[in-house]
């Protein structure tokens, strides 16, 4: 008959030889789990390696490796000529969950909280999972263009900088960081600003920037004006802050400022959210005349303008129109942007540009959310700005993205001529496709999914007057673009034949 310890081990331990994790690690973790839960008590003698290997049907060398792993972590004591005995290390407090559980299944962590908490309807996830090979997004860059080998050298060099340790150890810094100074230099050169480090904070993302700004500006039921078709993530942040969203029409000149004059009075608006450079999702640029009207109206009515410039760097033809914030003499504009969109997301940084007193208050919120920040990232970006590498990367990628835009337009003309209307954008990584004859975009997405093409719901826009897709092309090369457009046409034809 097997000893009680042997029977217990047979119940506690199971393993998968096909797993990437070695068998001896899988088994050792489950024995540790049994010790932690009290099934194997201190002093219990474990079977010898020969018996142990027969018990689990494993090679004896694997059994030896299991015991050596347990001994190296201090969970067992191997005494020559006597055996292997269970220890309970005094400092071993980490709970390691076994790969497979049987007799301890009742100890699984609870799935439901035993107390009430506030749920948020607005924060329901829009994330959709897919196994499709081809995906259309809302205009994200191609991470394959990221210079991996160069960045590995730059990142390694940044980590070795001696001043980095001093920055981590210092509780507060009296003078502006090198990164802030370099960021101001970059923005002044590329966006026509005249700012200093007191006018800017850096964040992890544009969404984080907008969250901090919304906490500063918005109280419950404050009116926030957004475009009739606007960015869902931004709307979610405003609604979670308690704002009452009001939609403003958008035409070929961008946000309709005259509509605001006609339908709102002074001090009734808290802020206006606008993507002046390229309105999301339609990509329409706010005209120069309307920019001046909106700035004057903000001063007269007493509302803030949140200018989200999410893809300023990607300009293919002509010069990009400077941000409204660069012409703001009255402190009415809060400017949100992102730097490093040609890089991996972990190297990108969001930023807020605003008057000194608002930035000072924003720092208080940022210190709660992200007090330390990413000093290595800041060190590296500072050097990339000062050496001109950021500028060179952007210019290099613009050439590639322009070729992809032109390629996409050729395929649209070839496969969707007379079906879809669009304007070739002068910049950005997305194109606004409008179907001339309405159809169910939900059915189109379903048919596309059947042929390995994923259209997320966040890029589909359909109501009584709109039937359109925000088609992001930046992440697809020219061969992939042809495949995607062909699949989209097949799905379209299938929906029409229903």
TrEMBL record:
Q: Which UniProt keywords apply?
A: Aminotransferase, DNA-binding, Pyridoxal phosphate, Transcription, Transcription regulation, Transferase
Family statement drawn from the similarity comment of this UniProt entry: In the C-terminal section; belongs to the class-I pyridoxal-phosphate-dependent aminotransferase family.
Q: Where is the HTH gntR-type domain?
A: 21-89
Which GO MF terms does the UniProt record name? transaminase activity
Per the UniProt record, one Pfam family is GntR
Q: Which CDD domains is this protein grouped with? A: AAT_like, WHTH_GntR
Q: Enumerate the transmembrane spans.
A: none
Question: Any idea what this protein is called?
Answer: PLP-dependent aminotransferase family protein
Transcription among keywords:
yes
Q: Does the keyword Transcription regulation apply?
A: yes
């Amino acid at each position: 008959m097997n000893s009680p310890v042997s029977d217990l081990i047979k119940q506690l331990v199971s393993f998968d030889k096909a797993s990437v994790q070695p068998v001896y690690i899988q088994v050792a973790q489950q024995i540790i789990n049994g010790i932690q839960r009290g099934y194997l008590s201190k002093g219990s003698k474990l079977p010898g390696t020969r018996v142990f290997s027969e018990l689990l049907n494993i090679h004896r060398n694997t059994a030896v490796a299991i015991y050596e792993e347990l001994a190296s972590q201090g969970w067992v004591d191997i005494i020559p000529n006597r055996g292997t005995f269970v220890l309970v290390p005094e400092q071993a407090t980490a709970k390691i969950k076994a790969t497979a559980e049987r007799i301890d299944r009742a100890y699984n962590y609870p799935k439901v909280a035993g107390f009430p908490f506030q749920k948020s309807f607005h924060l329901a996830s829009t994330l959709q999972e897919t196994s499709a090979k081809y995906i259309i997004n809302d205009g994200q860059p191609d991470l394959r263009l990221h210079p991996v080998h160069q960045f590995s050298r730059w990142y390694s060099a940044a980590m070795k900088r001696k001043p980095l340790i001093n920055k981590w150890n210092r509780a507060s810094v009296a003078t502006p960081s090198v990164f802030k100074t370099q960021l101001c230099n970059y923005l002044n050169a590329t966006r026509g600003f005249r700012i200093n480090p007191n006018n800017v904070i850096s964040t992890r993302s544009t969404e984080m920037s907008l969250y901090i700004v919304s906490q500063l500006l918005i109280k419950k039921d404050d009116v926030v004006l957004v475009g009739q078709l606007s960015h869902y993530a931004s709307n979610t942040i405003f609604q979670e802050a308690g704002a009452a969203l009001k939609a403003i029409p958008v035409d070929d000149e961008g946000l309709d400022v005259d509509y605001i004059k006609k339908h709102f009075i002074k001090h009734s608006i808290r802020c206006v959210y606008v993507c002046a450079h390229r309105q999301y999702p339609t990509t329409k640029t706010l005209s120069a005349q309307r920019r001046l009207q909106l700035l004057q109206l903000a001063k007269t009515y007493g509302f803030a303008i949140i200018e989200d410039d999410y893809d300023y760097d990607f300009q293919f033809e002509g010069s990009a129109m400077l941000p409204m914030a660069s012409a703001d003499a009255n402190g009415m504009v809060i400017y949100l942007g992102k730097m490093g969109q040609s890089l991996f997301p972990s190297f990108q940084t969001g930023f807020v540009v605003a008057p000194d007193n608002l930035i000072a208050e924003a720092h208080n919120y940022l210190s709660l959310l992200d007090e330390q920040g990413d000093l290595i990232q800041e060190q590296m970006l500072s050097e990339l700005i000062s050496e001109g590498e950021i500028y060179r990367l952007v210019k290099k990628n613009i050439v590639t993205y322009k070729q992809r835009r032109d390629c996409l337009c050729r395929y649209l003309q070839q496969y969707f001529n007379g079906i879809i209307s669009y304007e070739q954008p002068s910049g950005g990584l997305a194109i606004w496709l409008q179907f001339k004859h309405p159809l169910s975009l939900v059915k189109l997405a379903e048919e596309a999914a059947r042929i390995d093409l994923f259209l997320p719901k966040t890029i589909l826009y359909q109501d009584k007057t709109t039937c359109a897709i925000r088609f992001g092309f930046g992440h697809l090369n020219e061969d992939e673009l042809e495949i995607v457009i062909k699949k989209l046409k097949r799905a379209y034809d299938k929906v029409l034949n229903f």
